[in-house]
Amino acid sequence: MGCREKTATESKPAGESTAASAAAATATSDTIVIGHVGALTGGDATFGTSTDNAFKIAVAEQNKKNGIKGKKIELRSLDDQGKADEASVVATRLITQDKVSLLLGEESSSRSLAVAPIADLNKIPMITATSTNPKVTQDGDKTRPYVFRVCFIDPFQGTVMAKFAHDNLKLTKVAILRDMGNDYSVGLSKYFTAKFTELGGQVVGEVSFKVGDQDFKAQLTALKSKNAEAIYIPAYYTEVALIARQARELGMKLPLLGGDGWDSPKLYDVAKGALDGSYFSNHYSPEDPSPIVQDYIAKYKTTYGVAPDAFAVLGYDAANIAFAAMERAKDLTGPSIREALEQTKDYKGATGTITIDGKHDAVKSAVVMTIEKNQPKYKATIDP
């Protein structure tokens, strides 16, 4: 799961603040400091660790190319322990004390929502690789000026799985089991329901759990009587694997459906085959023959000894999109980097071709993966 590099409690006395001092420091230094706010410990630490691993590869590659505008990049990764309030503290520290020119992270939508206002206030661009909730880049009905993402958003992801369930699997009745305290889970449930019912399907039951729960048999028993043909579980791998095992123990053989929060090697370690015959939406497939994808998989395996999950691939794209924008920017101040990020178009990344739209969201395809013999396999690609 990786180790903690620093925490917010290790801070020094606060000095000058805001982007003005950060830009001044950048202008006179031979180093560009980029910060990562992520969960390097805690229940979903594989998300933060995977993206951090990717950021390190991208930084090393860029520094071999003479950095950005002749300046070397320094990555500073701080652990928020999977807590939204700690993410706010960490982001503030990176901006006001470490004088970062750009923030990478957070991986969770709930924690990115805590960091986004801080990035805007200080005029420091923020790129989340994996936060899919639409609200991350939006402040009410306005686009947040300094917040960007390189992943698709939940309305698209929810629609992808609803269409796949209806059109490909020919399902007409689906139940939903969601994490009631997770913006990601609640949002995906909403968008899946809207599209599935629009297509003529029926959501026959919906029950909730809370993150950290270990026993889901009451919820599953309640859904068992609904005669659903599948259960949509838009949650994180930490709970999904336990849910799958308990569903099979109750004799429920129906397929389970989910989103990119499933994507972690630990899902299969805990599920132990209970998810065979299930499906989830994701950002890339390791079976993609594209040279960009296969070259990166090889590099990641060489460095870390395992294949990258989607978070590690999105992290690589996020960092490289940031570096390309900073190289194009007229200077390394927040407003200039933001303007360059807004001009990102048809970037050829490891997760596909990425264009940043007017809402600072990524326009790109999604893939659907199936699980066979306790391993993910490519099933289909769904375009925007």
From TrEMBL:
Residues 31-374 form the Leucine-binding protein domain. Keywords: Signal. The keyword Signal applies. Pfam families: Peripla_BP_6 (PF13458). InterPro entries: BCAA_transport, Leu-bd, Peripla_BP_I. PANTHER family: LEUCINE-SPECIFIC-BINDING PROTEIN (PTHR30483), PERIPLASMIC BINDING PROTEIN OF ABC TRANSPORTER FOR NATURAL AMINO ACIDS (PTHR30483:SF6). Belongs to the leucine-binding protein family. This is ABC transporter substrate-binding protein. It comes from Pendulispora albinea.
